[in-house]
Amino acid sequence: MLEPSTPVQFVKGIGPRLAEVLAAKGLRTVDDLLHYLPFRYEDRLNPRSVAELRAGEMATVIAEVRNSGLFRTRRMPIFQLTVGQGRNRLKCLWFNAVYLQDRFQPGQMLALYGKVEEDRDGGLQIVQPQFEILGDINTNDEGGVETAEKEAEKKAAASLEIGRIVPIYESTGQGKLTPRWFRRIIRWALENLGPDLPDPIPAAVRGHLSLVSAREALWKVHWPDAGESFNDLQSSRTAAHIRLIFDELFFIELGLELKRREQKAQTGIAFQLNDGVRSAIKKILPFHPTTAQKRVLKEIATDMQAPNPMRRLLQGDVGSGKTIVAFQAAIIAIENGYQVALMAPTEILAQQHYFSARQILERAGYRTVLLTGSLEQDRKRDIRSHIAQGHAQLIIGTHALIQDRVEFENLGLVVVDEQHRFGVMQRLKLMKKSEDGRVSVERALLPASERSSADPEPDVLVMTATPIPRTLALTLYGDLDLSVLDELPPGRTPVVTRAVPDERAPEVWDFVGKQVAAGHQAYVVYPVIEENEERELKAAQQMHRQLREKIFPKLHVGLLHGRLDADEKEHVMREFQQGKIEILVATTVIEVGVDVPNATVMVIEHADRFGLAQLHQLRGRIGRGAAKSYCVLMRGAKVSEEGERRLDAMVRSNDGFQIAELDLELRGPGEFFGTKQAGIPNFRVANIIRDRELLEAAKREAAFVISGPNSEISKDEIERALREMRSRWAMSYGLVEVG
Ligand code: ADP
Ligand code: MG
Hints:
Bound molecules: adenosine-5'-diphosphate, magnesium ion
Structural class: alpha/beta
Number of helices: 25
Strand order of the largest sheet: 11-12-10-13-14-9-15
Largest sheet: 7 strands, parallel
C-alpha cells in the first residue's frame, strides 16, 4: 500500500534511476506524483472524425495509418504521414523528422492532436501534430522478456488510451517519460493508494464550497468521468481541480493567518492620538490630502493606537502620495515620545526623503537625521550616538540602518519605503535573528517567534509602489494588513506615452528642446540591466556628451548614475530639483521615488528591453505637476513579440495596477517578483492569476477556521487542519516559519 509520503521509487515501474529523473522535476513522493496534473486532455471518447474536421480548429482525431514517407526539400527533410477514415484523408507533416521514418506501419491506429489547416491542394493537414500509436506500449525502463504478465499489462494500459477522456502530461526526462508512461504510473499509484485518511479540511469548509473529497479529486483530475465538461477540464474548473487548488491555497492562507494573529497578539505601543497630536499632523500638510490619503492615515492611526503592533502594507501607485502619509504616521510616534526609522532602498531616495523631511518636518521642529553607508566614519559615529541618545527623532537611511545595527533609544515606528526594491538577500537579512534582543529595525521585522518579549514591538509600515494585484498581495503579504492609495492627487493629467523608432530621434530631441524652451525639464534614461551595467553606463555617458555638445549646446545637461559618489549624486539631484540642470541623462537610479514636478518629458532608450514594472516606475517620475507630460519610448528595429506587448501596454495604460496584472500575465509570478523572491510559494496546482477567486475563498475560510471552534467546526477538526498546515509549511515553504 502506498502512502502519500511514500517515495516514488516504490511505485511499480519506477526504479532508482527514474526516481532520480523525477526528483529533478520535483517529483519525490507519491503525493508529488499524484499532483503532477495533466496539462490538457484529449477527448478520445468522442474524437472528431476526419470528415468533420475544419481548418483552424484544434482537434483530436483517431485514424488509421495509410502511408508515410520522407522527402527532402532544399531546406530540410520533411516527414509526411497520411491517415484516413474510410475515404477521408488527413495529411500530417513533421519538419526535420528523420527519426520518424520507421515509426509507422499501415493499419496502425493513431491518436493525433494539433491545429487543422488547409493544405495546398485544398485538403486538410496538421503540421507537427502530437501523436500516440494506440495499443503500442513500449515501456521505457527495464525492458526485457515478454511475459504473460507483461502482456496483460499492455492490454490494461491500452485501455487507458482510447474510448475515454485521456489525460496528457508534459513529457519529461528528455522526453523519455512520455504522457502514456505517466498515465500508467499514476494510474497504478492511484489504484494502490492506502485507505483515505480523515480529510484535513474541516467539513464546514468543504460544505461552504461544495468540495469533493481529496481522493475523489485525485482520481477524477487524472481520469475524468465521461460526462465531464471538456471546457471545465481544459480550464481547470472541474470539481476535482477546484478541490486540489483549494487545498493548496487554503493551507498557505491558514499559515499566514496564524502568523498574522500571533503578531497581533504581541505587546505593542498604544500611541495616543489626542487633539495635540491631531493638530500637529494637520499643521505639516503642504496641501489638502486626497480622500484616499485621509482614509489610509485613519487606518494607520487606528493600528497605532491599538495596544498591539501594527503590521501594515501600504500600496499606492507611483505618485499617489505615500510619503506624506508616512510623515504623518511619523508625527504620531514622535509626538508620543518615540523615534521613527524610515528606510529607503537607494541612497538617492533616502536623500530625497531627507530633503522633503527637512522642508516639511524640520520646519515644524522635528529633529531629522540621514544615515547612509557612504557617510564618513566620524560623521556616522556622531549620528549613531545621536540616535542612541534619543536626540534624533526621525532617522532616514538606507538598509545601512539594518546592516550596521543602529541602536535606538526608543524606536516606536519603522517605515520601509519601496519595499519591492529590497532584494531577496536584504529581505532574508531582515528576517535574521538578533542575538541580543536589542530594539533595532532588524528586530522589529523579525517573525514574532524570534524576538525576546521584554520590550514592546515597534509598529511597522511597509510601503510599495509595485501595485501588486490585490489577490496576490493576499498570498504574498497575507500576514500584513493592507491599505491602498487608489487615488492620485488632483490636477494630474495622465502622461501621454508614445513608442517611437530610433530613426526618429531627431524629432524627439526637437520636441524635448521645445519643452525646455517652455520652462520644463526632461529626463533621458538608460535603464540598466544588472549584467550590463558597464555597457549601459557607457551608453549614458556617451549620450550625455552628445546631448551636451551637439544637440543642446546651449542647455545644461546633467548626468546621474549609480557610480557617482553620494555627494556628487546629491549635487546633481539638487541642481535638477532647482532647475539649474534642464536635461538629466540618467541610468535607472532614478527609478524610485525621485520627485521633480517640473520635469515633463522622459525619453527612455531601448525601452523594449525592460520590464513593464520598471518602465512604469520610470514613467512615474513625470506627470507629477499640473503640466502635461510626455513619455517617449525609443525602440530599436527588432523588437521581440513580448517587448512589443510591453510597449503597447505602456502606451495604452497609465494605471499601475492594470500594468502589473498584465506584467504578471506576461511573465508569471516568479519572474514578476525577480529572482525567486522569498515568500512566493511554489505552487503545484494553483495558479494565482487564474485562481484568484479561490484564493479569496481560501483566505476567508482560513480566517473562519482560525477564529476557533463553534457549532459548525470542532476543536479536533481545527487541530487536524493546523497539523496539516504545519507539515506542509515545513516541507514546502521552509523559509517562513509559523508557530
Ligand atoms: P509616491 O507615492 O510615489 O511616493 P510621493 O509621496 O512622492 O508619491 O508624492 C508624489 C508627489 O505628489 C509629490 O510631489 C507630493 O508632494 C505630491 N502630493 C502628494 N499628496 C498630494 C496631495 N494630496 N495634493 C497635492 N500634491 C500631493
Ligand atoms: Mg515614494
